[in-house]
Amino acid sequence: MTEQPARIAQTETLRIAYFEQGPANGWPVILSHGFPYDVHAFEQVAPILAGAGARVIVPYARGFGSTSFISANTMRNGQQAARGLDVIQLAEVLELNRPILAGFDWGGNASCVAAALWPERVGGLVCYAGYDIIDVDAQRNPVSASLERVFWYQHLFQSERGRKCLTAHRRELCRLLWYEWSPGWHFAEATFDRSAVSFDNPDFVDVVIHAYRWIFGLEKGDSALQTLEARLAQKPPITVAAVTIDGSADPLKPGGTADHAGLFAGMHEHRIVAAGHNVPQQEPEQFADAIIKLRSWL
Protein backbone atom coordinates (compact mmCIF):
# COMPACT_ATOMS: atom_id res chain seq x y z
CA MET A 1 0.00 0.00 0.00
CA THR A 2 2.78 2.42 0.85
CA GLU A 3 5.05 1.74 -2.13
CA GLN A 4 3.94 5.08 -3.58
CA PRO A 5 4.09 8.35 -1.64
CA ALA A 6 0.89 9.24 0.17
CA ARG A 7 -1.41 11.75 -1.45
CA ILE A 8 -2.43 14.84 0.54
CA ALA A 9 -5.92 16.31 0.97
CA GLN A 10 -6.13 19.63 2.82
CA THR A 11 -9.12 20.23 5.07
CA GLU A 12 -9.82 23.15 7.41
CA THR A 13 -7.28 21.99 9.99
CA LEU A 14 -5.31 19.09 8.53
CA ARG A 15 -3.21 17.94 5.65
CA ILE A 16 -4.56 14.39 5.55
CA ALA A 17 -2.21 11.84 4.02
CA TYR A 18 -4.02 9.01 2.28
CA PHE A 19 -3.62 6.16 -0.18
CA GLU A 20 -6.00 5.34 -2.97
CA GLN A 21 -6.77 2.17 -4.92
CA GLY A 22 -9.34 1.28 -7.54
CA PRO A 23 -10.97 3.11 -10.43
CA ALA A 24 -11.37 6.89 -10.12
CA ASN A 25 -15.06 6.52 -11.01
CA GLY A 26 -15.63 3.60 -8.66
CA TRP A 27 -18.09 3.50 -5.77
CA PRO A 28 -16.35 5.36 -2.91
CA VAL A 29 -15.18 3.81 0.36
CA ILE A 30 -13.19 5.42 3.18
CA LEU A 31 -11.36 2.93 5.43
CA SER A 32 -10.41 4.40 8.82
CA HIS A 33 -7.91 2.81 11.18
CA GLY A 34 -7.67 3.01 14.95
CA PHE A 35 -5.14 3.26 17.76
CA PRO A 36 -2.50 1.90 17.78
CA TYR A 37 -2.74 0.86 14.13
CA ASP A 38 -2.43 2.61 10.78
CA VAL A 39 -3.27 2.30 7.07
CA HIS A 40 -1.56 -1.11 6.85
CA ALA A 41 -4.51 -2.62 8.70
CA PHE A 42 -6.31 -2.43 5.33
CA GLU A 43 -3.52 -3.49 2.99
CA GLN A 44 -5.37 -6.71 2.11
CA VAL A 45 -8.88 -5.24 2.35
CA ALA A 46 -8.26 -2.41 -0.11
CA PRO A 47 -7.32 -4.53 -3.15
CA ILE A 48 -10.34 -6.80 -2.64
CA LEU A 49 -12.62 -3.76 -2.71
CA ALA A 50 -10.77 -2.19 -5.63
CA GLY A 51 -11.26 -5.46 -7.54
CA ALA A 52 -14.98 -5.18 -6.83
CA GLY A 53 -15.07 -1.73 -8.44
CA ALA A 54 -14.56 0.50 -5.42
CA ARG A 55 -12.55 3.70 -5.23
CA VAL A 56 -10.83 3.03 -1.93
CA ILE A 57 -9.46 5.87 0.22
CA VAL A 58 -7.31 4.92 3.21
CA PRO A 59 -6.26 7.95 5.30
CA TYR A 60 -3.88 8.29 8.21
CA ALA A 61 -5.82 9.54 11.23
CA ARG A 62 -4.80 12.79 12.87
CA GLY A 63 -1.59 12.21 14.82
CA PHE A 64 -0.54 9.25 12.66
CA GLY A 65 1.78 8.78 9.71
CA SER A 66 2.27 11.83 7.54
CA THR A 67 -1.04 13.50 8.38
CA SER A 68 -0.25 16.92 9.87
CA PHE A 69 -1.91 19.98 11.34
CA ILE A 70 -1.83 23.07 9.15
CA SER A 71 -1.23 25.43 12.08
CA ALA A 72 1.08 25.01 15.04
CA ASN A 73 -1.59 26.80 17.10
CA THR A 74 -4.36 24.27 16.46
CA MET A 75 -5.36 22.15 19.44
CA ARG A 76 -4.01 18.60 19.13
CA ASN A 77 -7.47 17.27 19.67
CA GLY A 78 -8.38 13.59 19.82
CA GLN A 79 -12.08 13.89 20.65
CA GLN A 80 -14.63 11.97 18.61
CA ALA A 81 -16.36 14.94 16.96
CA ALA A 82 -13.04 16.15 15.58
CA ARG A 83 -12.19 12.75 14.11
CA GLY A 84 -15.67 12.27 12.67
CA LEU A 85 -15.48 15.70 11.07
CA ASP A 86 -12.10 14.76 9.59
CA VAL A 87 -13.79 11.92 7.68
CA ILE A 88 -16.57 14.16 6.38
CA GLN A 89 -14.18 16.92 5.33
CA LEU A 90 -11.90 14.41 3.59
CA ALA A 91 -14.87 13.13 1.58
CA GLU A 92 -15.79 16.70 0.73
CA VAL A 93 -12.31 17.65 -0.46
CA LEU A 94 -12.07 14.51 -2.60
CA GLU A 95 -15.60 15.08 -3.94
CA LEU A 96 -16.79 11.65 -2.87
CA ASN A 97 -20.53 11.24 -3.28
CA ARG A 98 -21.96 9.57 -0.17
CA PRO A 99 -19.08 7.16 0.47
CA ILE A 100 -19.37 4.00 2.49
CA LEU A 101 -17.48 4.55 5.74
CA ALA A 102 -15.77 1.55 7.30
CA GLY A 103 -13.46 1.38 10.28
CA PHE A 104 -12.42 -0.15 13.57
CA ASP A 105 -11.35 1.19 16.95
CA TRP A 106 -10.91 5.00 16.59
CA GLY A 107 -11.80 4.56 12.92
CA GLY A 108 -15.06 2.82 13.79
CA ASN A 109 -15.84 5.58 16.26
CA ALA A 110 -15.08 8.30 13.68
CA SER A 111 -17.18 6.51 11.05
CA CYS A 112 -20.13 6.11 13.44
CA VAL A 113 -19.91 9.76 14.45
CA ALA A 114 -19.91 10.86 10.81
CA ALA A 115 -22.85 8.59 9.96
CA ALA A 116 -24.87 9.76 12.98
CA LEU A 117 -24.27 13.49 12.49
CA TRP A 118 -24.21 13.75 8.70
CA PRO A 119 -26.30 10.83 7.34
CA GLU A 120 -27.14 12.74 4.16
CA ARG A 121 -23.43 12.67 3.26
CA VAL A 122 -22.82 9.00 4.01
CA GLY A 123 -23.78 6.06 1.81
CA GLY A 124 -23.49 3.35 4.44
CA LEU A 125 -21.48 2.17 7.45
CA VAL A 126 -19.39 -0.87 8.32
CA CYS A 127 -18.23 -0.62 11.91
CA TYR A 128 -16.26 -2.64 14.36
CA ALA A 129 -17.77 -2.86 16.96
CA GLY A 130 -21.42 -1.96 17.13
CA TYR A 131 -22.67 1.56 17.82
CA ASP A 132 -19.26 2.95 18.61
CA ILE A 133 -20.09 6.47 19.81
CA ILE A 134 -18.52 7.38 23.15
CA ASP A 135 -20.83 8.16 26.05
CA VAL A 136 -18.59 10.48 28.10
CA ASP A 137 -20.95 10.60 31.08
CA ALA A 138 -21.02 6.80 31.26
CA GLN A 139 -17.21 6.71 31.21
CA ARG A 140 -17.22 8.32 34.66
CA ASN A 141 -18.58 5.07 36.09
CA PRO A 142 -16.51 1.90 36.53
CA VAL A 143 -16.99 -1.30 34.60
CA SER A 144 -16.13 -4.78 35.87
CA ALA A 145 -12.72 -5.16 37.49
CA SER A 146 -11.61 -7.57 34.77
CA LEU A 147 -12.44 -5.03 32.04
CA GLU A 148 -10.82 -2.18 33.98
CA ARG A 149 -7.69 -4.31 33.95
CA VAL A 150 -7.88 -4.56 30.12
CA PHE A 151 -8.16 -0.76 30.04
CA TRP A 152 -4.85 -0.31 31.89
CA TYR A 153 -3.42 1.85 29.10
CA GLN A 154 -6.32 4.31 29.38
CA HIS A 155 -5.70 4.70 33.10
CA LEU A 156 -1.97 5.11 32.52
CA PHE A 157 -2.61 7.91 30.02
CA GLN A 158 -4.45 10.01 32.62
CA SER A 159 -1.15 10.85 34.33
CA GLU A 160 1.93 12.73 33.18
CA ARG A 161 3.82 9.54 33.88
CA GLY A 162 1.64 7.96 31.19
CA ARG A 163 2.46 10.72 28.72
CA LYS A 164 6.16 10.17 29.37
CA CYS A 165 5.74 6.41 28.98
CA LEU A 166 4.00 6.78 25.62
CA THR A 167 6.63 9.27 24.50
CA ALA A 168 9.60 7.15 25.49
CA HIS A 169 8.23 3.64 24.96
CA ARG A 170 5.53 4.04 22.30
CA ARG A 171 6.56 1.02 20.22
CA GLU A 172 6.86 -1.30 23.19
CA LEU A 173 3.53 -0.14 24.60
CA CYS A 174 1.69 -0.36 21.28
CA ARG A 175 3.15 -3.77 20.45
CA LEU A 176 1.88 -5.00 23.81
CA LEU A 177 -1.62 -3.77 22.96
CA TRP A 178 -1.52 -5.61 19.63
CA TYR A 179 -0.72 -8.86 21.46
CA GLU A 180 -3.29 -8.31 24.22
CA TRP A 181 -6.17 -7.26 21.97
CA SER A 182 -5.78 -9.99 19.37
CA PRO A 183 -4.88 -13.16 21.25
CA GLY A 184 -3.90 -15.90 18.87
CA TRP A 185 -2.90 -13.52 16.07
CA HIS A 186 0.74 -14.38 15.38
CA PHE A 187 1.79 -11.33 13.41
CA ALA A 188 5.34 -10.99 12.14
CA GLU A 189 7.56 -8.37 13.73
CA ALA A 190 7.89 -6.74 10.30
CA THR A 191 4.09 -6.37 10.20
CA PHE A 192 4.14 -4.37 13.41
CA ASP A 193 7.18 -2.36 12.33
CA ARG A 194 5.43 -1.15 9.17
CA SER A 195 2.64 0.36 11.27
CA ALA A 196 4.87 1.54 14.11
CA VAL A 197 6.55 4.08 11.84
CA SER A 198 3.24 5.96 11.92
CA PHE A 199 3.57 6.46 15.67
CA ASP A 200 6.61 8.70 15.09
CA ASN A 201 4.29 11.51 13.97
CA PRO A 202 5.18 14.57 16.13
CA ASP A 203 1.52 14.96 17.16
CA PHE A 204 0.95 11.29 18.02
CA VAL A 205 1.43 11.56 21.78
CA ASP A 206 -0.56 14.76 22.19
CA VAL A 207 -3.53 13.47 20.15
CA VAL A 208 -3.60 10.07 21.87
CA ILE A 209 -3.29 11.49 25.38
CA HIS A 210 -5.97 14.09 24.73
CA ALA A 211 -8.31 11.45 23.27
CA TYR A 212 -8.22 9.29 26.38
CA ARG A 213 -8.32 12.14 28.87
CA TRP A 214 -11.26 13.67 27.02
CA ILE A 215 -13.08 10.30 27.05
CA PHE A 216 -12.80 10.26 30.85
CA GLY A 217 -14.00 13.87 31.07
CA LEU A 218 -10.66 15.03 32.47
CA GLU A 219 -9.70 17.35 29.62
CA LYS A 220 -11.89 19.73 27.68
CA GLY A 221 -12.53 19.38 24.00
CA ASP A 222 -12.69 22.11 21.39
CA SER A 223 -15.49 24.53 22.31
CA ALA A 224 -16.33 24.86 18.60
CA LEU A 225 -17.31 21.17 18.61
CA GLN A 226 -19.46 21.25 21.74
CA THR A 227 -22.73 21.44 19.81
CA LEU A 228 -21.78 18.28 17.93
CA GLU A 229 -20.79 16.49 21.14
CA ALA A 230 -24.10 17.51 22.72
CA ARG A 231 -25.92 15.86 19.82
CA LEU A 232 -23.81 12.71 20.19
CA ALA A 233 -24.56 12.59 23.91
CA GLN A 234 -28.23 12.07 22.99
CA LYS A 235 -27.27 8.79 21.25
CA PRO A 236 -28.78 9.64 17.87
CA PRO A 237 -29.77 6.52 15.94
CA ILE A 238 -27.73 5.66 12.87
CA THR A 239 -30.15 5.78 9.96
CA VAL A 240 -27.86 4.77 7.09
CA ALA A 241 -27.57 1.09 6.14
CA ALA A 242 -25.00 -0.59 8.38
CA VAL A 243 -23.12 -3.80 9.00
CA THR A 244 -21.54 -4.17 12.43
CA ILE A 245 -18.86 -6.68 13.34
CA ASP A 246 -17.64 -8.25 16.57
CA GLY A 247 -14.41 -10.16 17.03
CA SER A 248 -15.21 -13.19 19.17
CA ALA A 249 -11.76 -13.11 20.81
CA ASP A 250 -11.59 -9.38 21.52
CA PRO A 251 -10.98 -8.75 25.25
CA LEU A 252 -12.08 -5.11 24.84
CA LYS A 253 -15.61 -6.21 23.89
CA PRO A 254 -16.46 -9.22 26.06
CA GLY A 255 -19.88 -10.49 25.12
CA GLY A 256 -19.92 -8.47 21.91
CA THR A 257 -22.23 -5.68 20.81
CA ALA A 258 -25.32 -7.44 19.43
CA ASP A 259 -27.39 -5.53 21.99
CA HIS A 260 -26.64 -2.29 20.09
CA ALA A 261 -29.13 -3.26 17.36
CA GLY A 262 -31.77 -0.83 18.60
CA LEU A 263 -29.51 2.12 17.82
CA PHE A 264 -29.55 1.32 14.09
CA ALA A 265 -32.70 2.62 12.44
CA GLY A 266 -31.84 1.61 8.85
CA MET A 267 -31.03 -1.76 7.33
CA HIS A 268 -28.65 -3.47 9.73
CA GLU A 269 -26.79 -6.75 9.91
CA HIS A 270 -24.56 -7.87 12.78
CA ARG A 271 -21.72 -10.33 12.24
CA ILE A 272 -19.37 -12.22 14.54
CA VAL A 273 -15.90 -13.02 13.22
CA ALA A 274 -13.40 -15.43 14.78
CA ALA A 275 -10.76 -12.78 15.45
CA GLY A 276 -9.55 -10.30 18.01
CA HIS A 277 -9.74 -6.52 17.88
CA ASN A 278 -8.01 -5.93 14.55
CA VAL A 279 -10.48 -7.71 12.27
CA PRO A 280 -9.41 -5.97 9.01
CA GLN A 281 -5.85 -7.24 9.34
CA GLN A 282 -6.67 -10.62 10.83
CA GLU A 283 -9.64 -11.46 8.61
CA PRO A 284 -9.44 -9.07 5.63
CA GLU A 285 -11.72 -11.15 3.41
CA GLN A 286 -14.51 -11.03 5.97
CA PHE A 287 -14.13 -7.29 6.54
CA ALA A 288 -14.16 -6.67 2.79
CA ASP A 289 -17.16 -8.98 2.37
CA ALA A 290 -19.15 -6.91 4.87
CA ILE A 291 -18.50 -3.79 2.79
CA ILE A 292 -19.38 -5.51 -0.48
CA LYS A 293 -22.57 -6.89 1.08
CA LEU A 294 -23.51 -3.41 2.26
CA ARG A 295 -22.86 -2.05 -1.23
CA SER A 296 -25.36 -4.57 -2.63
CA TRP A 297 -28.10 -2.97 -0.51
CA LEU A 298 -27.57 0.53 -1.86
Gist?
The protein has one domain (7-297): Alpha/Beta hydrolase fold, catalytic domain (Rossmann fold, 3-Layer(aba) Sandwich), CATH 3.40.50.1820. It is 38% helix and 16% strand. The chain has helices at 45-51, 80-93, 106-117, 145-150, 152-156, 160-181, 189-196, 204-215, 226-233, 279-282, 284-297; strands at residues 7-10, 14-21, 27-32, 54-59, 68-69, 100-104, 124-128, 242-247, 268-273.
Please describe what this structure looks like.
Helix 3 (106-117) links the parallel strand 6 (100-104) and strand 7. Strands 1, 2, 3, 4, 5, 6, 7, 8 and 9 form a 9-stranded mixed beta sheet that branches. Helix 1 (45-51) packs parallel to helix 11 (284-297) and helix 2 packs across helix 3 (106-117). Helices cover 38% and strands 16% of the residues. By secondary structure, the protein is an alpha/beta fold. The chain has a single domain, classed as Rossmann fold. The chain is globular, with a radius of gyration of 18 Å. The mean pLDDT is 97. The protein contains 11 helices and 9 strands.
